[in-house]
C-alpha cells in the first residue's frame, strides 16, 4: 500500500452501533473490524473490555505517518463535503465543521491507542480478499464499514465475491454498511453478493438502520446462518 493514496477517515463507537444495530450481545462477542482505518471503534471497545481485532492495510504504517496523512487530507475532505451539502443528511452532524471535529476526535483516540494496540495485535496490517492469519469461524461477527460495496468501481465483482467468502469463513455473521457506492447509487455488487450468500447456505437480510449521513445510506447487509437469533 502507498500511504499517499490513503484517505484516513475515522468513525466512533456510537456510529458503529447505529450503522450496524449492535446489541449488547453483539458487543460482547468476538468481533472483526474489516477496513477500520483510523476509527476509534477498537479503542473504545477495548476500554470497555470487549474483544475486537481490526484489519486494514494502513496499519503497516506508524502513528506518526498516519497522523501526517490525516493532516494532509483533512482540509480537502471537508472542502468536498462543503461543496456538496445536499449529498448528506445533517442529523447526526449539524454542519461540515461539526463532522470534521468528530472525525478528528475519533482519529486522535485511535492514534493514542495505536502503538499499544498494534503490539497487542488488535490492529493487524492485512487486506481482503484473503485473511490467512485467521482460523475458520474465529469471530462471532465481522463488521465492514465503508469499504465493500462502497468502492464499486475500484473493486470488481470477483474481489467482492472472494472477500465475502473469506469473511464467511472467518466469522459466523457478516454485516456490511452502507449499500451505496461513492456516488450514492445502489452498489451493483449487492445482488451478486446476496446470491452468493444464499448459494453458501446463508441468509442475507437488508436492514434499515438508525444511522444515515450519506443520503440514502441507511441500510446494511446482514449475512448469517438461517434461524440465528
Automatic annotation (TrEMBL):
Entry keywords, A to Z: Methyltransferase, Transferase
An MF annotation (GO) of this entry: methyltransferase activity
Keyword check for Methyltransferase: yes
GO biological process, one term: methylation
Protein known as: SAM-dependent methyltransferase
